[in-house]
Amino acid sequence: MVVIVVLLFASFLASTLTLQLRAEQQTAFNTASRAGSRFLAEAGVNLALFRLLDTPLVASDPQFEKLVPGVEYEATLHTGTVRYFAVNEGGKLDLNNAPRPLLLLFLRYHGFSLDDANAFCDALADWRDSDDLLRLHGAEKEYYQGLSPPYIPRNGEIEEPAELLLIRGGNRLAGKFEPEEVFTVYNPQGKINANHLTPAMLAFVMGGDAARMQAYREAQQTNLVISKAMARQLIGDQRYAELEPYLTFDQEGGSSHYQITAIGRPLPGRVGAAPPPGVKTTTLVRIFGDTYQFVLWREGGA
After folding, report:
1. Distance of CA 188 to CAs 96, 120, 148, 172, Å?
2. H or E element: which one contains 81?
3. How many CB atoms lie within 10 A of CB 3?
4. Cα 221 to Cα 235: distance, rounded to the nearest angstrom
């Protein structure tokens, strides 16, 4: 009996040690994969920056040709793959400058009733102004102080897109897209540059029509620049008529700020294994001349 008990105890210890060793190996692998994914995502950011800052006259490698805004590129490195795209902030809705009718169109596209869309626009205006005077359907300090946890409105210009989710009614947009994919505070024109559309903004402009979205990207890659005439044909007469007052077609974008989104994904640990989780970075870069400055860097799982 003593021998049996000793053997059982030894087997238990061996099993425990084996499980612990496997857990530590998996932890080490996950840590290394996370680091590898992050480095790959950083490589995507640098590739995009190179293509934004430098335009070679001749390029035998498509990875180094002029970058087409909003088009997703993929690069394969010896440690994994990276997908990336870049757009000028002029292709987004500016929370401080976008015309109210344009915001209403966007909110209606995302399922807001006309009354709810107007209520959000009133709340947005109340959030930005410096007084405590309440608009018809807006919200001021008293409303936000009644929330749990309570907070106060900025009473000034919005400083970054995520603030949208704090404004009364803005939480209805949570989960539909990342705020920085659609909104900005660096588009002084207040309009949408049709040559610099993120995937989420392209979906809005095209009214969610997947075939038109695909045709738009193909036209971009073929022609590099979308003109008014091309946009009308690609978007469709009815939708274009709604958006025409709020569209611009400047090739440079209209803003000194660019968003670069990159997803790094390392190679699987062994043949036949599923690829490890990737890392997605969203970077806001200010470009002036041949230099640049990072304004924002956000990363998460992908």
Report:
1. 9, 21, 34, 26
2. strand 80-88
3. 7
4. 16
Q: What is the sign, positive or negative, of the torsion defined by CA atoms of 287, 293, 298, 299?
A: positive
Angstrom CA distances, 217 to 206, 214, 284, stand at 12, 5, 22
Exposed / middle / buried, residue 262 (Cβ in 10 Å: 0-12, 13-18, 19+)? buried
Domain boundaries, the chain: 1-93+177-302, 111-175
Please, are residues 200 and 109 in contact by the beta-carbon 8 Å criterion? no
Number of H helices, E strands in the chain: 9, 9
Rounded-to-integer distance, Cα 6 and Cα 4, Å? 5
Q: Does domain 111-175 have CATH number 1.10.40.60?
A: yes
149-178 per-position pLDDT tens digit: 999 999 999 999 999 999 999 999 999 999
List C-alpha distances in Å: 41 to 64, 260, 280: 17, 10, 7
**d(C-alpha 262, C-alpha 39), whole Å:** 11
Residue 143 φ/ψ, nearest 5 degrees:
-65, -50
Instruction: Give the chain's radius of gyration (CA, Å).
Output: 25
Peptide bond before residue 149 is cis, with ω within 30 degrees of 0 = yes
| pLDDT of 183 strictly over 80 | yes
Look at residue 61 in the predicted model and tell me its pLDDT: 61
Which pLDDT score is estimated for 59?
Answer: 52
pTM for this model (two decimals): 0.83
Q: Which residues contact 191 (CB under 8 A, 6 or more apart)?
A: 90, 98, 99, 102, 246, 247, 248
The DSSP bridge partners found for residue 77 are: 80
79 CB-near residues (< 8 Å, 6+ apart): 36, 39, 40, 266, 267
What is the percent of the chain where pLDDT is above 90? 62
pLDDT for the residue numbered 82: 92
